[in-house]
Backbone:
């Protein structure tokens, strides 16, 4: 179970604020400060990082156009420690200083919470009594420099950027849409991420929207409020700041501001790996068997999963033909009951896809039906930015003991894994082979540094038979050669992208034929990490990630063109111990376009302080499994 231990909490209060200026709130380490002021009856804030202005004075409001006064303030410090059910760390410290402003917006009472963390600032409004005629909209400006460069997700395409804000100020119209999170390379030094968290606790609010005011030269964001309730709570709006871009990925602030665990007994929630049938259809194994939507294909998947400690098998679309309330008409191509029984006997759990883009089936009956079928989870497709639906689906799947994975540009719901850890992953990215296209090495690095900030990603990495995919031998694969990667990079990607469900998209035989390389994926835990470090990261060039489970470390690195070498300092190992290491590497002949499946596996020993030079081919990768030498 998740627990939280309160270490200390101090509260100071004053009854009124005669001055327009409120004293700044500063992060525990003193590096970040947030100042709030009233200018001509409107609220403004400013963010400084290590003495430099990162966000110039900018507006924020809950009732745009309404005048505001400060009726009182409180300042408190809080430091707690909690254990996520699963995540990138086994323990997370939640340490912040908080300013609470009691406000009056033309007579409407509201509280604004401003938190300063070591890694960022967080803002939330709450209203206890909302007038029926009120029209709130959660609005914040970001006074960035005109020289700052912005990157953002782009659905099933490569993330956009760099966009120089000064260039936008000269344009009559701004590219749309701007999706969360935004990553900013600032002229002042730190890297900034703009996003939200805990939307699940803010009924009535839409997902965050970003835009740029060319007249005011300001980037801003908004959340529409559509509920008719007498109470209001906004999502937390976050400004993360780090000296290294990779540290944004492990920044705990989005989880710390999220609501605590909402489930009494989450012990049934198990992160893990899953095989997946959709990209395998049409693959012919060496024994002549061709995979498709049929019972024999699924039994082969289940056998391989059971033999290799893979906990799940995901059956995608076309296992059913029609639906009605409380019932799904099964396809005559397979015997789902037999598949379910066989999987249960083998200790493998089944996840079932459901495509509701035609709106044919109500959720109230769907989730109990999945539970009755024996499914352990659902992959839900084509609901987009439907916030109420997504919130309800997460909650109803939890009530029925089901994991849930969202397909196709879903609501990000950052922080949801703390509150509802059954929301195991989501395709908030260009997943591998989406629309029968593969992403480039550059796209992967961008998504790892941008899309991954919003939470776990279902990216479908780990293609091992690259030649078969590029030859068009898969029914649901690319129609032309466009899978540019190396097999070692594919293995590394399964570690670099954090998820509670690592979805492996290739055929069992493809993994068995490269069993020595697949060992890295097989041995790698999923979701339940004790420690995570981003060792190297640079936009469009490379990323290297190290994750620890117990005494074992797994390290995955990838490089864009033209390839290169990253120095991996093993300073994270324990002093005085010798470790065995298995290297999974590109060869001198490997190339992501013309020789992607050349790799080598070798053994060695290492100790704390050693330096490994991880050499990668163009578009290639490098992996290490490091564990104590017990001999």
Residues:
């Amino acid at each position: 179970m998740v627990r939280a231990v309160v270490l200390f909490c101090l509260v100071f209060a004053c009854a009124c604020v005669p001055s327009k200026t409120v004293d700044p709130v500063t992060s525990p380490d003193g590096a970040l400060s947030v100042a709030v002021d009233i200018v001509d009856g409107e609220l403004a804030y400013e963010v400084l990082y290590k003495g430099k202005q990162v966000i110039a004075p900018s507006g924020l409001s809950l009732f745009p156009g309404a005048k505001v006064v400060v009726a009182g303030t409180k300042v408190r410090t809080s430091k707690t420690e909690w254990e996520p059910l699963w995540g990138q760390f086994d323990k997370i410290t939640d340490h912040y200083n908080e300013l609470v402003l009691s406000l009056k917006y033309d007579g409407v009472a509201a509280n604004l919470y401003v938190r300063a963390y070591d890694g960022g600032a967080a803002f939330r409004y709450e209203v206890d009594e909302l007038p029926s005629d009120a029209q709130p909209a959660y609005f914040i400006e970001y006074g960035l420099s005109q020289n700052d460069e912005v990157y953002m997700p782009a659905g099933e395409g490569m993330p956009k950027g760099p966009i120089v804000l000064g260039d936008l100020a000269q344009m009559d119209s701004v590219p749309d849409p701007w999706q969360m999170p935004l990553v900013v390379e600032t002229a002042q030094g730190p890297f900034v991420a703009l996003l939200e968290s805990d939307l699940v606790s803010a009924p009535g609010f839409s997902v965050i929207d970003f835009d740029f005011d060319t007249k005011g030269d300001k980037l801003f964001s908004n959340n529409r409020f559509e509920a008719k309730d007498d109470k209001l709570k906004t999502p937390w709006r976050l400004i993360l700041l780090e000296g290294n871009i990779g540290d944004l990925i492990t920044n705990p602030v989005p989880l710390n501001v999220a609501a605590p665990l909402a489930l009494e007994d989450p012990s049934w929630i198990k992160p893990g790996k899953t095989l997946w049938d959709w990209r395998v259809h049409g693959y012919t194994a060496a024994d002549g068997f061709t995979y498709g939507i049929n019972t024999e294909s699924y039994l082969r998947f289940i056998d391989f999963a059971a033999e290799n400690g893979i906990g799940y098998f995901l059956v995608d679309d076309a296992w059913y033909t029609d639906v009605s309330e409380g019932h799904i008409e099964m396809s005559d191509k397979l015997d789902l009951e037999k598949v379910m029984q066989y999987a249960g006997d083998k200790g493998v759990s089944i996840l079932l896809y459901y495509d509701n883009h035609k709106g044919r089936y109500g959720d109230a009956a769907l989730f109990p039906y999945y539970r009755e079928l024996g499914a352990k989870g659902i992959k839900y497709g084509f609901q987009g930015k439907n916030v109420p639906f997504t919130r309800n689906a997460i909650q109803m799947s939890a009530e029925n003991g089901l994991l849930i994975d969202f397909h196709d540009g879903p609501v990000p719901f950052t922080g949801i894994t703390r509150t509802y850890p059954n929301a195991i992953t989501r395709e908030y990215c260009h997943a591998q082979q989406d629309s029968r296209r593969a992403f480039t090495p550059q796209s992967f690095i961008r998504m790892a540094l941008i899309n991954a900030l919003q939470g776990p990603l279902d990216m479908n990495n780990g293609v091992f038979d690259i030649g078969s995919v590029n030859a068009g031998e898969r029914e649901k694969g690319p129609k032309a050669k466009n899978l540019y990667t190396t097999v070692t990079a594919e293995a590394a990607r399964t570690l670099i992208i954090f998820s509670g469900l690592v979805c492996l998209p290739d055929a069992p035989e493809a993994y068995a034929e490269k069993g020595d390389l697949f060992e890295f994926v097989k041995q790698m835990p999923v979701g339940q990490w004790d420690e995570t470090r981003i060792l190297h990261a640079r936009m469009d060039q490379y990323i290297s990630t190290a994750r620890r489970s117990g005494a074992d470390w797994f390290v995955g690195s990838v490089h864009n063109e033209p390839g290169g070498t990253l120095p991996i300092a093993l300073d994270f190992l324990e002093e005085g111990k010798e470790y065995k290491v298995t290297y999974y590497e590109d060869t001198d002949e490997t190339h992501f376009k013309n020789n992607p499946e050349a790799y080598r596996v070798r053994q060695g020993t290492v100790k704390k302080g050693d330096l490994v030079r991880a050499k990668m081919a163009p578009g290639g990768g490098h992996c290490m499994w490091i564990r104590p030498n017990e001999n």
Observations:
- The chain has twelve helices and 35 strands.
- The radius of gyration is 25 Å.
